[in-house]
Design goal:
Blueprint: E1 7-15, E2 22-27, E3 33-38, E4 42-51, E5 54-67, E6 74-79, E7 85-90, E8 95-100, E9 116-122, E10 129-134, E11 140-145, E12 150-156, E13 160-167, E14 174-179, E15 186-190, E16 195-200, E17 206-212, E18 219-224, E19 230-235, E20 239-247, E21 250-258, E22 264-270, E23 278-284, E24 289-297, E25 306-315, E26 324-329, E27 338-343, E28 348-355, H1 356-364
Antiparallel strand pairs: 1-28, 2-3, 3-4, 4-5, 6-7, 7-8, 8-9, 10-11, 11-12, 12-13, 14-15, 15-16, 16-17, 18-19, 19-20, 20-21, 22-23, 23-24, 24-25, 26-27, 27-28
Length: 365
């Protein structure tokens, strides 16, 4: 039965994909670039710009392929906040940092200089690396692995990277790491069904200060609300749970979303528009993309504010019969309605969230 929803997801473009399963996609926060990674051991870069024939539209194009040299699947890809560095995490147990060999001069077409080189190799995990993430300042990197560990690395001058802490608080495979957008708080999600939160103590050792329990299946994905006072998680249990800060170092369950029929592999929290808390996009093994509007009822005590949600858009079979592995909102101003997805078929797709009324008007013209 078709749902009567206020927004629709329109396929904007289908980009040249990978030769094998595409695991993750990441928008560059500072430049018109998009990266995807794959079981084919490569990273693909795409660029976009205003369409010369219609400035109201964007034109996406394939830019280059980074042959990473990883010996196994590249499972995760992440940009530094500056947009200058790119991190990859691989099933070969290593993570790597990449930078463009020679940046183009101002005004030069970026496609004229797209050689990327490995400037750092993060070694030490015993098994497959599942996720890599830069902190909001870009001075720290987190990695996690099937070896049940979470590592924190310090980014030093001259492209040097030093492991400053190893946390072994999970009892199973760690699937995801995610940094708070403005504070040095790190979250990790695991096959053990829990979420761990970490901070740095005065003795310069990182430690787990909270465990969030409630999921009854593997926790695949984590994402912070844009303003940082909420954390969302997705799971094999077919739910998305939203957690809120109740005190300086205390977090609690606040809200739950349901709308998938199989495992939810990826979620992304966009800024949205209006006075709400933004949009959460979700996707997974059922091939569906859902978009939820998250709202907060004002209360005198902010920690007791009531969250509400409504499904505003949904598309089934987003990549045909294939599982969809990653969904990411574009973080750049003016492009908040754009989503990127990757799937088991190796493809990378761009979607635009549009008002259903506007879409209907276009169809009538």
């Amino acid at each position: 039965m078709a749902l009567d929803l206020p927004f629709s997801l329109q396929l904007y473009t289908d980009l040249p994909g990978h030769e094998d399963c595409a695991w993750q996609v990441a928008w560059n926060p500072a430049k018109p670039l998009l990266a995807s990674c794959s079981a084919d051991k490569s990273v693909r870069l795409y660029s976009y710009r205003k369409d010369p024939y219609d400035p109201s539209k964007l034109s996406f194009s394939y830019l280059t392929t980074i042959q990473t040299g990883h010996k196994k699947t590249v499972r995760s890809v992440a940009w530094a906040p500056s947009g200058k560095s790119l991190a990859t995490a691989s099933f070969d147990a290593n993570s790597a940092i990449w930078e463009k060999s020679e940046a183009p001069e101002d005004g030069e077409d970026p496609s004229e200089s797209e050689e990327w080189e490995c400037v750092g190799l993060l070694e030490g995990h015993e098994n497959e690396c599942k996720s890599v993430a830069f902190s909001g300042t870009g001075t720290l990197i987190a990695t996690c692995s099937r070896d049940k560990s979470v590592w924190v690395w310090e980014v030093k001058p001259d492209a040097e990277y030093e492991c400053i802490n190893v946390m072994m608080d999970h009892s199973q495979d760690v699937k995801c790491v995610s940094w708070h957008p403005t504070e040095e708080i790190l979250a990790s999600a695991s096959y053990d069904d829990t979420i761990k939160l970490y901070i740095d103590d005065p003795d310069e050792d990182w430690f787990c200060f909270a465990t969030l329990s409630g999921h009854v299946g593997t926790v695949w994905s984590l994402v912070w609300a844009p303003r940082g006072d909420y954390l969302a998680s997705s799971s094999d249990d077919l739910t998305i749970r939203i957690w809120r800060r109740s005190a300086k170092h205390a977090w609690e369950f606040a809200h739950q979303l349901k709308g998938h029929t199989r495992s939810i592999y990826s979620i992304s929290w966009g800024t949205g528009k209006g006075d709400n808390l933004g949009w959460i996009a979700s996707t997974g093994s059922d091939g569906k993309i859902n978009v939820w509007e998250i709202s907060e009822s004002p209360q005198r005590d902010a920690a007791r504010a009531t969250l509400s949600s409504r499904l505003v858009a949904s598309v089934s079979s987003a990549h045909g019969v294939y599982d969809v592995n990653s969904v990411q909102w574009c973080p750049r101003s003016g492009l908040e309605e754009l989503l990127a997805t990757t799937a088991d078929d190796g493809s990378v797709r761009i979607w635009r969230l549009s008002s259903t009324a506007l879409v209907s008007d276009r169809e009538c013209t």
